[in-house]
Batch of 4 targets.
Target 1
Amino acid sequence: MSTTKTTPTADTTRTEPRGRLLLIDGHSMAFRAYYALPVDSFTTSTGQATNAVHGFTSMFLSLMENEEPTHVAVAFDLAGGTFRTQEYSEYKATRDAAPEPFVGQVELIQDVLSAMGVRTVTAPGYEADDILATLAARAQEQGMEVLVCSGDRDSFQTVTDHCTVLYPVKGVSTLRRMTPAEVEERYGVPPQRYPHLAALVGETSDNLPGVPGVGPKTAAKWINLYDGLDGVIAHAEQISGKAGASLREHLDDVLRNRRLNRLLTDLDLGIDPAADLPAGRADRAALARVMESLEFRTLAQRAQRVLTFSDAVEPGEADDALTGPTTDVLGRDLQPGDVGRWLHRHLGDAGVLLGLDVVGTLMPGQGDARLLAVTDGRRALAVDLADLSADDEAELAELLADPDHPTVVADAKGVWHALRARGLDLDGVVADPSLAGYLCRPEQRTYDVASLAQRWLGVDIDALGNGEEPAQGEQQSAFDLEALSADDAAPAQLLACARRAGVLLPLQAALDAQMTARGVAHLFTDLEMPVAARLAQMEDAGIAVDDAVLAERESELDSRVTRAAESAYEAAGHEVNLSSPKQLQTVLFDELTMPRTRRTKTGYTTDAGALADLYAKTGHPFLQHLLEHRDAIKLRQTVEGLRKAVLPDGRVHTTFQQTVAATGRLSSTDPNLQNIPARTEEGMRIREAFIVGEGYECLLTADYSQIEMRIMAHLSGDEALVEAFRSGEDLHRYVAALVHGIDVEDVTAQQRSHVKAMSYGLAYGLSTFGLAKQLGIGNAEATALRDAYFDRFGKVHDYLEDVVEQARRDGYTETMLGRRRYLPDLTSDNRQRREMAERAALNAPIQGSAADIVKRAMINVADRLEALGLSSRILLQIHDELLLEVAPGEASAVEEVVRQMMSGAAHLSVPLDVSVGMGRTWREAAH
């Protein structure tokens, strides 16, 4: 922001201000923020537009940082009329309705302000400007300095020697300081007479017409000559020329304008500015929640620096709620045996719950642990692992591997990899706060210890370090470690490690209570924790890859990229950078004169979806080759990423993410093995590179057939759909026959394809419009197909209706196993947000139940293999598919285990059909 701190105007009769009050016109600045930032760049993953919220919040934090107000309030307009519209119905009548993406953002701004401890003020029948003028007048009477932030020029009449208006001249980032001198210089009249000028000139934004032919210079000259508007009106007959005649003809308009643009300074708000509007202390946990829901990571960090929080620890104060354990930081003077003696002395008792934090590389196949902190809640140890003697490391290894020492570890799977790389086994993990936090709030984006502590304990770990440096020989609280300088024995990273360890036990206790209250504690102990343990083993094993095959695929795709580019150049008539949106816009819309796509701030979109739609309309060869070029590049990038991910052991070790998808599904990263196409020839050729590893006989793949549809049949109880599964016929052909009222053998390929899309579309919350677009048919035909479908499967329709209404009442959906997804937007007044939440409500129980069943199957298969003493192992879980590496001579036994455990993972009213295949490569094992 370009503002500088306000220095009160010299006034020998006024003492030092008793405080600085910042007043903000909420709606005015929200609209400014909306138009300053593009909607497309500020939209959450759930589709909620947040550009106005982001711009407003950024401006507010800048004001708090730059102006350092001691008191704050934000005024908002209320829906409905005011005394001004009662007098003049055309007042502001020409303003357009709020843009659809803006709707609902004011409420979100108010949520942010509430979490920041800022008071918002409204007054029925009056505008925000009247509230600001009233508060500004009363605050100055109390000897306060006032800043008014508003984009409404009517606010200039509040300007005095002790009240400055911050007026936006560029979005909400550049504000002009309107002092008495600045107002007079720009408008030719002092602030108190600015509304006189506006009455004569009029205000277009308020739909207040002025005197025709009278501009600001003429109006200012009259006002100064005749000592104000009253004087101008009194001398109207003496003003000559066309301007004078126009004034006399429109005197009623001038008088009306003056009545309406006068801001009230005497509203009965019941607010004493000095006593009732102190700059509040923010609620750290509430602010963390609202910022995370808005996906404002950078702004959240900025708010932590700028704002004062209600849980802030003053220097010298003890934090009675969370003092943390006494911490011994062993560093520079560490001697052999120190760690072992410490562990025996303080953590030797079996059965005591421990908190553990590790700093290092938390990745499978290439992990490394550097720093470690462990605590029982009373005392804690923080140590650099590089400083340990062999004996001390052995003592630590014994503690970590002892299942009689139950341990709480955030991201336990990653920590397991890091410690394993140092030869340390972690076998006592009983709880992972990251997974617990995910079960409680699956829509959040981060589950690290710092975020969880803010969200559930209201604790900022980094801020809890304001104590005095301890005297020689004294210990420190885990939350008092900031007092140590960089030159002390413990580096900053080790101190942070100790703080995180210190918060783990109270954090897990809080999350245990939350999981119990939300009915998901059983999922934590019976599903997510066991899954994490199995995923760690799968990641550690990895999957063997034939790099020669990948190199061949990469070369093929290079050639395909080149051919597609050359064909595109030929179709365009010249070379063009196919990766440049600007150049593509020129070729598509100027040179080839194709229909324009959706407009963006940089022109017309050239994203894949828009180009695919454009190709469907035009069939132009340039688009055909452009789309082919993009597809080949995407596949080549996949192959390049796989080749880079192959480790010296010749295997790829992906990382499975448990806390990303709100439905409970796993995702894969570093590399992403879920983005390899499974139903295209190109994708299958890439899968040829995944091979059985040395010492094993073959790969086995097993997946569920149409699991989402089976779950929908079970949950809806639709007899016709249940019978479709029991018939033994091809499901989608059988359903198509029912929908169209024909025999199964008469169903065409297109009819089967359309009904298949309909069935899965319903399970994934696809709208009729979306179905029409996907199938390339009209909305009317899609509606007719949907109606025919529901005529045959009426209980499916009833189930889909009921699940949304139930979620609207409860605030969440549930899977068959009780996994919840909270959807507060189901009751939103914003249609876009509400409809997106409704689609999520349709999707979550079905997709979430499928994810839960696959997880349970994975646990059961792995447990059974171990119980039978088999050496075969699970390597991957990709959506509904398990991939195993089969040891010599175990193929038959493994197939039996897989079929039995997967088909028995859930009891549905239709059978869970499992398909199994085997082969030397992932492709050969397909079925």
Target 2
Amino acid sequence: MPDKTTSVVSYAAGASLAAAALIYVFGPTFTIDHDTTSSRKKTIVGLRNQANDCFINSVLQALAGLGELRVYLIRETHRRRIEDPAVYANLVQPLDGTQLAQWKLQGLQDGLVTHGLKEMLDALNERPISKKAISPFPFVKVLEIAFKQRISRQQQDAQEFLQIVAERLKDEFHAGERARLHARNLGSIAAADANSKDGNDTDRSEDAADSTTGVAINIDLADVQRAVREIQAPSELDEGFPLEGKYESHIQCQTCGYTTKPREETFCTLTLAVPQVSSTSLSLCFDGIFKTEYIDDFKCEMCRLVQTKTNLEQEMAKTTSESFRALAQENIDKLQIAIETDPERPPDDVELGDIRYAPKRKIAKTTRMSTFPKILAIHLSRSIYGVGQITQKNSAKVSFPERLPLGSVAEQRKYKLLGVVTHRGGHNSGHYEAFRRQNTPSPYANINTFQKSEIYSKTPTPLSTPQISARQADSPSISTPDLLSPSSDTSSSTPSLESSLRPPRSVPADLPNPIINGKDRDGETSSLRSVAASTRSALSKLAAPRSSLNGASSPGGPAATKPQPRPKKRKLAEKWWRVSDEKVREAKTSEVLGMQKEVYLLFYELDTEQ
């Protein structure tokens, strides 16, 4: 048998080596997770500029800081991976009647750019322990394969690159949505066919005698398809493409008061024109689109129909021909129906006269955002087009807020700034940089690497009272560990905090003395009482309020509680990453908001905590 001292020394040496190996392996992650004790300089992954790729790098870095976009990419790639490949192998053309080439439609349904962008953004969101830079070429290669053409490095416009990527992602989302909806419709039709086949097998003679049964089944199937479209499509639109929004516009005539039907348009990036002034604000740039605009000399459709009807009535009153009177009355009735139902669709067989002689009116054009996107990408157009196709850059200062309110008072949404792309230089040359907000700590951050994460619950759930297994009467009792104690190696002779605060309990006279022959026979019951007391203490701390009027519970009754204050909104992180290709350094919010002459692209995310 080996010596006890030798065993202890060997165990201590082994434990030291294990601890050293643990620190060596997990040390880099530990130092990154703990900012206060870290001696390393935090950084993010940069992008190499190999062929004037700063316009690509800046957009990718800005997209990498958008949490809603990353959630969408994870959901879409996971959905295509777990579903049957036959769902996306069956090509479904768009519903608007456009016919896409087979190779392009297959690429849209497969989500080529969606997969490529997810891999690129995942690589950019790694936590490097030292300076690291990767190449954007893998994602550029995916784009070239998806479009079957090379991406030109001559234009060097970050907005055009963002527009290409955003529109492609939107088309891939809707292509996948159509493929899934088509597969559901086929499944419902197959189920209906199976049910009808079972019914036909039970009564063949009746089906043979009546041929209208098949027509009835077809009508039912069409109703089923429409129901599936109406019920299942909105559920996916609620989790749609986060960059896609909609705005609608309508025109109101200031003479007759007629308001046209709203025309809705979708957008992935919102382009705002910067006025040619020394300084302006983002809200004033929004007024160029979402502010009521008054226009003169507009041809109102309602006024045109009313004028034509009035002319026919005057001519019918002057004429003596019965045939002309009957024709004029017929045209007047058709015009009246169009005026009451839809003035924008006049009758085809009624002559309205030359459009040049239509009455000119003053109208009010109003545009509003009807669908607010989760991610609002704003492009500030700084191009000034002069005489002779000479284009210059508008270097006006544009102030932009950290929190952006949009919409009317009743339907207002608030956005928070997460990314900015700036441009330095002239219209035909310059350099792009990106600013990414440091969203730390993340909602899934592990505060301590060697302890459990608080991803599921911010408040720890109280432990239940441990169950004591049945033992023999003469067996020695084993002390149950205290629930609030971090160590289970507590002796029964050491009083707990709960027992020390509890007043002494008198022993009734009819009960035997608990101390018999110098032994504590009440050890088991006292241990159980301490466990129960500790459990009650833990539950009371969670259930009862911590404060009363005097700072403690009043004796003889429940504690008087104060109204709980509202939780404060979490402030946005003050630290940013300023990324210029491979160069990465930290920046503050004041520095980002000060880039008023250079700001080119803005990325806002919908604030769900408003």
Target 3
Amino acid sequence: MSLIASVWPRFRPLAWFAAVFFALSTATRLALLVATGDGVGFAPSYWLYAFAVGAVYDAATFVYFAWPLVLFLWLVPRRAYEGRFGRAGLAALCFALVFALVFVAGAEWTFWDEFQTRFNFIAVDYLVYTNEVIGNIRESYPIGAILVGVAFATTCLFLAGRRWRRPADATSTFAQRSVFALAWLAASVVVTFALRSDLKERTGNEYVNQLAGNGVYEFFAAFRASELSYPRFYRTLPGDEAFAQLRRLLQTPDARYVSDDVADITRDITADKPERKLNVVLVSIESLSAFYSGVYGGHPSLTPELDRLSDESLRFTRLYASGTRTVRGLEALALSVPPTPGESIVKRPHNENLFSMATVFNEKGYVSEFLYGGYGAFDNMNYFFGNNGYVVRDRAAIAPEKIHQANIWGVADEDLYTLAIEDFDRLHGEGKPFFAHIMTTSNHRPYTFPEGRVDAPQGKRESAVRYTDWAIGDFLRRAKEKPWFDDTLFVITADHCASSGGIASLPVFRYHIPLWIYSPRNVQPGTFDRIVSQIDVGPTVLGMLGMSYRSRFYGADVFRLEPGRERAFVGNYQRLGLLRNDTLIELAPARHVGAVTPDYDKNSPQPKTALDPQLAREAMSYYQTASYLFSNGLLAADLAGKADVARQ
């Protein structure tokens, strides 16, 4: 009798599980495809690609996912397998595996709805913070009904084809089953080394590329890629050349290098106006896309308060966020550094004592604060800011009786602003100027806020935007009554946009965020219409204050930057972009370097364009050197001005 004939009765449940697995995977892909709407549309070639390539990734995932069942079928002795233990154990394991599949399918739907992508680094990050994530799920969705639905669907699938799961094994020996298990192990090894997540990214539509993947596979691929070595995965320049290029790019009319060391980016910044010791309040609003605001083209506008503020503010019309997560926005605003690949610096080891906005303000005699509406242990925020010159105040500093409303992410924005005003009153009373970075939370799922503030239903993103806008207006009205108001610069922007996915790999329109600088006594209203990177916000504010200081920032004061040198940095955890001269240079793992024409206004394909070698070298020098300097401890606040570059 052949080996296959001998082991087939024992491993027949594996065929049943394969049918269930592929049916659910295909149904999930179809549901997500329909959810993209016009993002893919009726394009037969795209559909064929998504399902054909998707079947490959499904098969690879099945090889991994089925291991618990393979082990059970391999190891349980024949007598036990056909007895009560075998029947009960097999049934329980199969039910658990199917339940997991159905649950993951539902989770993928909600994740796609929020981020327009399969599981990625965001899902990996969220897994670390189970309290916030589970709390968010409980507050956002009817968990009881969902679990009942998952259990019902699991039961239906479990009962279907149950005769294929009946324990039967008349002839197999342990040695024969071991051959099968060894073959499964060999298949696992082949899949591990022959398949990568990025191999599916072969179309010009990122939705299609994502649909061609498998959520479970993508989750573990993102987990493995959370720490990406730039020199290992990306195109590089020789070390001296990269830093020489960077020094040229960072050279501005207001800057003078303090050293001839090619790897030292330390510069003395000389202001062109007298210094004004104004307070600075930097408000980074959760997920505030520019298109929510009427003055940025939103229709209808969800931000009437900010729209009215525009007539009294300096408004920047073309500001682009560095990334798609809060920690990327915080990194850009605090450190003025491009988004290095993998995890944000905010969450990486050895991120203490970095050159930051607080470094500059503290040397000028300011008190620097980071104020957050949630618990700052999330995303390592308290540790990062607390070890980089900021006094940290989070939700724990707010007395319960002062909280009007809270959810798992934090207190209502108005309560955070009350904490801020109390701190500003105290600091002003002590005669201390202050720099405060306020990070809000209300514009985040589950989108709940105090009743009676805006005429909008709870639980809707648009409603949360309206409340966020109301709260900033209320904050400024209260601030106007304070003695420190006339001497304060209010800088109002976003950490990132509301959505990150799109047809393009780096959809530029998704990175467009607003920026208002408001101080009636000190800032002339108007608009600034050149491209600005999020990493430029800090140096530009310092320039407006007339501050001369020693800098290790990558960003620039955009008012001192010569016309034509504008650029912005946009990225996700793997793909890095340099936006300049209406071209987007893209760097990606496997040493990919490409160029596309960005679409600033809508979700559309960004066609490939001829690669400008000089722009490509500029992109590589920015990202390569930023990764090198951080990894080697050379972004520190207390360097004496000397750095040593690896001569590669």
Target 4
Amino acid sequence: MTTKKVYIISHSHWDREWYMAYEQHHMRLVALMDDLLHLFKTNPDFHSFHLDGQTIAIDDYLEVRPEKREEVQAAITAGKLKIGPFYILQDDFLISSESNTRNMLVGLEESRKWGDPVMLGYFPDTFGNMGQAPQMMKEGGIEAAAFGRGVKPTGFNNVVINDEKYTSQFSEMWWEGADKSKIFSLLFANWYSNGNEIPVEKEAAQAFWKEKLADAEQFTSTDHILMMNGVDHQPVQMDVTDAIKVANNLYDDYEFIHSSFDEYLEAVMNDVPADLSTVSGELTSQETDGWYTLANTASARIYLKQKNTDVQRQLENITEPLATMAFDVTGEYPHDQLRYAWKLLMQNHPHDSICGCSVDEVHREMITRYDKALEVGKFLASEAVESLTASIDTSLFPTDSKPFVVFNTAGSAKTGTIETEIEWKRLPFSQGVPEELYAQLKNETLPELTVIDAKGQPVTAEILSHEVRFNYDLPKDAFRVPFMAIYVKVRVVVTDMPAVSWESLALTVGQNTTSTLPTIVSEADNRLENEFLHVKVESNGQLTVTDKTTGITYPNVLTYENVGDIANEYIFKQPEGDQAIYAHDFPATTTVAINTTKIGEITLTQTLMIPVSADETLAEEMKAVVEMRQRKAQRSKELAPFTLTTKIRLEQGSRQLKFSTHFDNQMKDHRLRVLFPTNITTDKHYAESIFEVVERPNGVSASWENPTNPQHQHSFVNVQDATHGMTVSNYGLNEYEILADNTTIALTLHRSVGELGDWGYFPTPEAQCMGEQTVAFALAFHGADDQNRTFHDGQNFQIPFTVAQTSVHNGRWAPKAAYLTIDSSAYALTALKRKEHQTEIVTRGFNLSNTAAAPLEIKISGYTPSRCTLIETPHEKPLSAILEPAEINSLLWTKSASVND
């Protein structure tokens, strides 16, 4: 008789914050760790404890018990406490490619400071699994992953598999990424609590194991059976070794052992059958009824997603590139400060944090972390800019001018508007009494001003306003210097500024140039038009947009839709029979806000009458913990005005129509979306995800019951056919849906709900997101083969220009130059940084296509490249001028031998 082996792994899935505030969970973590350290010392039979794959738990414990550091180290060294490989357990889909990367990079590095990490991609409760995980894990040296969601297991009984891409006959399977990387994967088919609270009493143990072994053997492909002894915030089972002894006495044909993932994985991977299933791409529970994909967390507390975008773009796309360039001037790079900022940011990335599905106290604390990380990023960026501008030659400008430098730190050419303030004149407090200095400057008459480039040529610019106000300098070698100054607000449109480049301009005395070109807005017929787009604002507030390149017209663009929502932070549920309310069914007014040859902006105002909330039934259903699908609540009969104010902007040289929508939300239990009909018949679409532009089907599986099909995105979603397409971009708006007509893109702008959801009743009044809200999104079009341009524009929509004033001075760097060049429209840059703790440059990016290879040439003057991994170690792959389909490409740049320091 073959003896089957049952591997019992003690663990506790530690949501750092969730249905209680962080410190409530934190104190329970301290108690758990105290118990573990005691158990390790007193029970030699206790094999080990899996610390949930996240090293931050050690930091959290030692913050309260610093005197326990040596005990923790001893437990890790002895193999009792199993740590790593990640810093936190993130939500894959709601954080950027780089945030996912840094989580692994930092986690592995910090784990190795303590000992050997568990080399398992651990995603026990991630709300879906990213399609590039196999490639990413292999780049980190990780050959296996474990997850609790995303795949439908079918068991041994020859159940028909409707879609083999997203189903497996076993709990073990191979997982293949878009680039064909493949790793071994384990599904917690009976959840990560299938061996929780094992009885010691004989009769109870018999009943427990009869059920649990049958459940596990329904899905396991080998004689190695995994039992997870723990669950969310579970205290360690102190008598688990006694329970294991009882189990061994009950069964002759099973061997029960207290074990670890290292031992289990080695055994099961050696014995898996040859016909093991392969699942591929992103795993988001496609073969289920669709209700519990939890994708609507992408629209819970959208203000968190906007703040997350603020910080990610600041660190990834502004601070790190600027600091990388500044190193060539200063020889210094803020490794420690950036690590501090990244840790603060990643502390907001667990799946119950960034998803917005916790109690209000949790999300209040998140805002503080975001603000702290953002301020660090801004400070480091300003330090880098100060060093850079001091080295850029501005000596060609008039001595009495006020030079300023514009940086494009994005990874592709960028067109957009710069509005900045230039200090024209200052009077230090050392020269007089503040109020007198203020009055003196206030009474000055400014001369006519203009903006010129380094060749002295006028640049079309607008002098918008000026004001006098207090400010101060903080010299690095002296006390603070307060002053009064005149600040002039200037607006300039920049067209096709190259990737990672700068250009010097100056504000100077002179006559501002006037253009003979027509203005963007035709006020007579509410039209905006530039070289590429013709936009008509119809009387009902919808737009008719013509792409002048293809000649195709798109009607009914910018359709606002409002419906009720009676579910929770995880899931959207429209009341039965609820009818959508559309803004175009109410009066609309327009005003022209800006109208020059460079910029046109029309302000559209629409006031809908919508219900003030759900009816009183919802409160009772929530208190009674009625599952959201069973709720009968309707929207209130009481209506109130809900005003949408949308700025519609078109700029010269831009192929992107930009929108900013503001509203003061005083309503509850509702959702607001904006619809973009494409009139393109297709069964698939594309969206930016982690290190890929993923192709997703518009339709759903036969088992899908949810009337909606919400999806995640980063900066854009695209619908196209063989001849043309539409790309909708966003800023921190991570939820979209392709409607049942298969042609309309629906972008979620706001969702108000009143409870956490899940396993009980946790009121979350702040998830109603009351008060002033502003959201930003953009629209672009393409022809048969230039969709990548709109993808780059979508990414750049989230990355502002950086502008800094400087002086007239000599410098070693040209007034206009690019730090690097990228020759590939298919390559999307995600990182330009210095190697962790070192001085080499790291560039990272990915192929915007999962199916087509593309040429790739990147150059950084004075540096020589080699391949490296996501964790910045040497790569086995050689350098190549070809970017393979779905490839994540990381390069390590070493200063060339011929270049002097």
